Amino acid sequence: MEMTAQEYQNRKGQSYKLLLWFAMISMVMMFAGLTSAYIVSSSRKDWLKDFELPQAFIISTIIIILSSFTFHSALTTIRKNDRSKTSFWLLVTLVLGILFVIFQFIGFGQIIELGYFFTGSESTVNTSFLYIIAILHMAHLFGGLIALLIIIYNHFKQKYNSTQTLGIELGAMFWHFLDILWILLFLFFYFY
């Protein structure tokens, strides 16, 4: 029995989604290992007990939450074949993603202003872990931004419509994952 074009697209989409799930699960395992090492290291004598996250990290958290809503709006509007609103929401998501990165760097600057560095005699175990985990998250976010740029390019090339949304769906899945991951990491650092 021969497969129809729609069946082929459905299987292809399921395969891509499964691969994305495997990638996201492996990222969760990596961050779980790092946060576990953070918890184990908290018993060290040189651990800062009164370290607070910079204000810029709170702002960046709000920004990434908003960006998940805008990405979801892009997916919703393409499913309705509203290309202009989809363009708007994709571009707003891109701007918010860039703002997230900017506020992360502002947060690093605020940590440095407090006298804590990534390495060297002024570094602490706390800040070293914070830098590593935040930079790894940003590296994954850069991947998300590159995927978003590709999605925007393909959208303007009219590759997406109400029946072909796979690229935007995959991008939204990954973006929501990055959002949830950052929120969990932020809460972990804020309360632990």
TrEMBL record:
Keywords: Membrane, Transmembrane, Transmembrane helix. It holds the Pfam family COX3. It is found in: Cell membrane; Membrane. Residues 1-192 form the Heme-copper oxidase subunit III family profile domain. GO terms for biological process: aerobic electron transport chain. It is a multi-pass membrane protein. The chain crosses the membrane at residues 18-41, 53-75, 87-109, 129-153, 173-191. GO terms for molecular function: cytochrome-c oxidase activity. GO terms for cellular component: plasma membrane. PANTHER family: CYTOCHROME C OXIDASE, CYTOCHROME C OXIDASE SUBUNIT III. Belongs to the cytochrome c oxidase subunit 3 family. This is Heme-copper oxidase subunit III. It comes from Flavobacterium piscinae.
